[in-house]
Structures are given as C-alpha cells and as structure tokens.
Amino acid sequence: MVWNIPLVIWAHLSCLCLLPSSHAATTSSPAWQYKKKKGLGCVSSPVASAVTKDSCVVSWKPPASDGGAKIRTYYLEKREKKQTKWISVTTDEIRETVYSVKDLIEGLEYEFRVKCENLGGESEWSEVSEPVIPKSDVPIKAPHFKEELRNLNVKFQANSTQVTWYFGMRQLESNEKYEIKYEDGVATMYVKDVSKSDDGTYRCKVVNDYGEDSSYAELFVKEHPPEFTLPLYNRTAYVGENVRFGVTITVHPEPRLTWYKSGQKIKPGDDDKKYTFESDKGLYQLVINNVTEEDDAEYSIVARNKYGEDSCKAKLTVIPHPPPADATLRPMFKRLLANAECQEDLSPGLRGWQDLIYFLDTSP
Ligand SMILES: *[C@@H]1O[C@H](CO)[C@@H](O)[C@H](O)[C@H]1NC(C)=O
Ligand SMILES: *[C@@H]1O[C@H](CO)[C@@H](O)[C@H](O)[C@H]1NC(C)=O
Ligand SMILES: *[C@@H]1O[C@H](CO)[C@@H](O)[C@H](O)[C@H]1NC(C)=O
C-alpha cells in the first residue's frame, strides 16, 4: 500500500519531468525505474554570457510544463572545471531562469548546472553548461573622428566579431561614400566628401560570442570656405624661363580653382604650350612656359567651394636681359652652365646662359 503513493505522484508529475520525492526515489517503484531509464532531464543546459573578469550571467529555459505544480525554486551550481566538487552559487532562492553569478576568479574555467523544484520534488540536474573563463574584457572605445580625413575609429578586442555601422537608424555599407574596415581590433569607417547632410550621430555596433555593445559619435560638419595655406608670392623671371606658381589650400570640402592673368581667366586648353596646370592633394600649380615680356602681369587664383571663396595674387616681373655676371661667382657659373647644357636639347649657348642666370638668381 505504501509504495502505491509515489506511483500516483509520479503519474502526475511525469509530464513535468520531475522526480518523485527523494523518499519515493529510494523505493523500488517501477515508475522510478522507468524514469531513470529514460534519463529525463527537466531544465535545459544553462548558458553563461556577459562574462567579465569576476562575474557572468547564467540563464536556462524552464521545463516545458510545470505539470500543474508551480516551480518553487531553481538550484544553480558552479564547478571549477579542474575540480569535481559542485558548489551552490547562492543560498538565496532563485525564482527566475537567470542568475548573475558573482565572485568568480579571473582565469579559471567554470561550468554550471541547474535543477528545479516544485511541490512534487526536485528535477535531475541539467546537463553541464559550456565552460566559461572570466577575464578582463577590453571595453569598446567610443568612436572618435580623425579630423582631416573624417574617419571614425573604434578599438576593441574579441574574436568572431561582427561590426556594423549606423548613421542614425540607417545601416551603412561600404560604398563610394563610406569606407568600412576592421583590422587588428580596430574598426574604421571613412565618410567621404563630407557635407552638411553628414551631420549627425554615428553608431558602431559590435557583436561577438559574449553579447553586443554599441558606441556613438557625433559629427558636426563645419561649413567653411577654402583657405590658402600657402599663397602666391611675387616672382621675377628672365625671358625664356619657365615660372611655376604654386599654392596649397584646404581641400575639405574640395574647392574648384580658377587662375587669372590680369583679371582674365586662364583656362586649361587655351594655350597648352604656354600654361601647364598641375594639381595634387591640395597643392595646385600653374606653370608658365618660356616666359616673354607679355607674361609680365598680375596673376591670381580663386578657390571656391559651396561655402565661399578665397583668393590670392602675385606679380610676375619679367626681365628681358640677364644682368652682367658677377666676377666673384664665375667659377660656380661654369659648373651650372655645364649641367644646363647636358639637360637641355635647346640651343646650348643661349639656353645655358639663361639657366645659369636663373640658378644665380634663386640660390644666392
Ligand atoms: C582569438 O583567436 C585566437 C586564434 O584563434 C586565439 O589565439 C585567441 O586566444 C583568441 N582571443 C580571444 C580573446 O578569444
Ligand atoms: C620661347 O619663346 C620664343 C619667343 O616667343 C620662341 O622664339 C621660342 O621658340 C620659344 N621656346 C620654346 C621652347 O617654346
Ligand atoms: C607684390 O607686387 C605688388 C605689385 O607690384 C605689390 O603691390 C605687393 O606689395 C608685392 N607683394 C609683396 C609681398 O612683395
């Protein structure tokens, strides 16, 4: 008669996957044997996440059904993987299916298991969790702009990491506007051709095995007109020389440049023999080839972007004839003259003489 009772309890609890009470379990009830053979477990294997250097969050799924008897509490145990001993993580009752485990030791490997209890008794222990190692996580550094290039950098460390960039709510993809890179734990995004519409909040989202995190940066686009960082300066040249005028200028936003001679626009293609235009990353040059007295004029350059313009000007003075050579410098002339003759395939006598004057003029 006595052993019929656990049998009844078991019949009630079977869908709950709970064992009969510990007293019942010691009997030789057929139901008990049946249960043992099936190896029914009640609670899913716990999962540890949000690992820090001394804590982690362990969660699990409740039993599919409580079988009419409410789950009263869960029991969560931890074990250092190299040890055999299981230790309860808390003496408190755990009513939720998640628990924040504290006081772990950095560098050790921990496993977890969980069981539940209701009026009918306790379940079996769940399967053991995947081990975790508490360690210092390198926090995500907030993105920061590198001013000149308008690029955002974020530094963090983790394997199997996915990085996603957002501008407001919009996810960004690598294209001609955005260049997205992730190398050596540094995620970088370049915003190209920055304009006022790029103003706003940028978000870098990082997802790895342990969870996800986001960081934000604000971009304020300053609307500024171009500015000459190296302006034109007055020049003197001799007839036949090539004169190179150069300026450097801020390139964000990229300016359009126009050269003028005495207020008249010099357009590329107007006189290809006379003028050569060169530009490279903020350095803009105008070469006036084989100057004549007609090139004696004021030259100016205007740089414009959508926010404004800047200009500068300089005088080119063309001197028709070389001055008489200075006797004290005569030995040096010879060397320069020889060099000039080697380099030029023009009338050696005259060209050589002009180059010589030129060198004298520029290297006092
Ligand atoms: C990242 O992966 C490398 C090689 O797979 C491994 O040596 C390293 O320990 C891993 N680092 C982290 C933080 O998991
Ligand atoms: C330079 O200009 C002079 C006068 O216009 C001309 O005679 C000479 O051929 C030109 N030289 C070159 C290299 O263009
Ligand atoms: C350049 O030449 C112009 C015209 O001759 C003159 O007004 C100006 O002061 C000169 N600039 C410099 C920096 O010498």
UniProtKB/TrEMBL annotation:
User: What residues does the Fibronectin type-III domain cover?
Assistant: 42-137
The UniProt entry's coiled-coil ranges are: none
Kindly state which keywords UniProt assigns to this record, in alphabetical order: Immunoglobulin domain, Repeat, Signal
Record's Gene Ontology CC terms? M band
What is an example of a Pfam family matching this protein?
A: fn3
- GO BP, sorted A to Z: cardiac muscle cell development; heart morphogenesis; sarcomere organization
Say which domain of life the source belongs to: Eukaryota
For the Ig-like domain, which residue ranges apply?
Answer: 92-220, 226-317
Question: Where does the signal peptide begin and end?
Answer: 1-24
The name under which this protein is listed is: Titin
